[in-house]
Design a protein that fits this description.
Low-confidence stretches of chain B: none
Oligomer: heterodimer
Largest sheet of chain A: none
Largest sheet of chain B: none
Mean pLDDT of chain B: 96
Distance between the termini of chain A: 35 Å
Structural class of chain B: mainly alpha
Distance between the termini of chain B: 25 Å
Number of strands of chain A: 0
Radius of gyration of chain B: 17 Å
Number of helices of chain B: 6
Shape of chain B: globular
Mean pLDDT of chain A: 96
Helix content of chain B: 55-70%
Order of helices and strands of chain B: HHHHHH
Number of domains of chain A: 1
Low-confidence stretches of chain A: none
Order of helices and strands of chain A: HHHHHH
Shape of chain A: globular
Strand content of chain B: under 5%
Strand content of chain A: under 5%
Radius of gyration of chain A: 17 Å
């Protein structure tokens, strides 16, 4: 139960952070990638703030044998760099640059632009289904 | 607050929002032992991956994403959002982002925020790759007259 509560609080903070930071605006995210044009560095500040807090969290995590509200850590491996990782990241970057949207902001943006964000989110879901049955 | 030379940038709002995002990811990690990676959570919510958070947890996080944006939009500041002008960009972008984030096991949140802060070699490589690919895509789109 406390696991559920913490997840809802975390999701809400995440969505609020995306909204405050301007990252729900696809044109601003696209602006960060437009380094040869009208570059908008805002995303770098967002990433800096988030990575700063998370770096501290990882330091704390090292001293814990289990999470506060759950029995064990479920963490991905960090080492193997393969063609799937690189190919997936290249594809993700193409879609991100084309639409100015990545998964978190696209979902949160459903509340401000339900049609545009909805078209993206449904297409994204379809892309995930395609991957599930083809890769 | 503005940044000299970049009249449209929002460095302070960006940093504060980033702190909130980091706090959210830290709560997930230290509270429930999971990575706040949104592409993974979305796939999990659609039962596309066998491992990962229990279904209610995945859906609660997604509800939170919407709720957080709604609270900010209602009580703090109206959210600006300018979307791509062409529907095909939304459809193609969405399909490629969906497929690519699954193939590469993560997006801006999982690899960018959670993985880079862990100094995960996988995530550092993935993040450098998708930023480079995104920059190339925008430059190429501008050349083709698809800028917006």
């Amino acid at each position: 139960m406390r696991d559920f509560t913490i997840t809802l609080v975390a999701g809400t903070l995440f969505g609020g952070g995306l909204a405050v930071s301007g990252m729900m605006d696809p044109s601003r995210v696209r602006g960060f990638l437009d380094v040869f044009g009208a570059w908008d560095p805002t995303l770098a500040f967002v990433m800096g703030g988030a990575v700063l807090v998370m770096a501290i969290a990882w330091l704390i995590q090292r001293g814990l044998t289990q999470p506060v509200f759950a029995h064990e850590f479920n963490l991905p491996g960090t080492q193997s760099i393969d063609a799937k990782l690189i190919g997936g990241a290249i594809l993700f970057g193409i879609g991100w640059g084309l639409a100015g949207l990545c998964p978190g902001p696209a979902i949160s943006a459903l509340i401000v632009a339900p049609i545009s964000a909805g078209i993206f989110v449904i297409s994204m879901a379809a892309g995930m289904v395609l991957h599930r049955f083809n890769a | 607050m503005t940044l000299p030379g970049f009249p449209n940038a929002m460095p302070l709002e960006g940093f504060v929002g980033g702190l909130l995002i980091g706090l959210a990811a830290a709560l997930m990690l230290l509270g429930s032992g999971r990575i706040a990676g949104i592409s993974g959570i979305a796939a999990r919510a659609m039962t596309l991956s066998k491992s990962g958070a229990p279904l209610p947890v995945a859906w609660l996080f997604i509800v939170g994403l919407l709720l957080g944006a709604l609270l900010v939009n209602t009580f703090i500041m109206p959210i600006d959002a300018e979307f791509p002008p062409a529907t095909w960009m939304l459809i193609a972008g969405g399909l490629i982002v969906g497929f690519g984030t699954r193939l590469g096991s993560g997006c801006t949140s999982g690899h960018g925020v959670c993985g880079m802060s862990r100094l995960s070699p996988r995530s550092l490589v993935a993040t450098a790759t998708f930023i480079t690919s995104g920059i190339a895509t925008v430059a190429f789109a501008n050349m083709l007259g698809w800028g917006w």
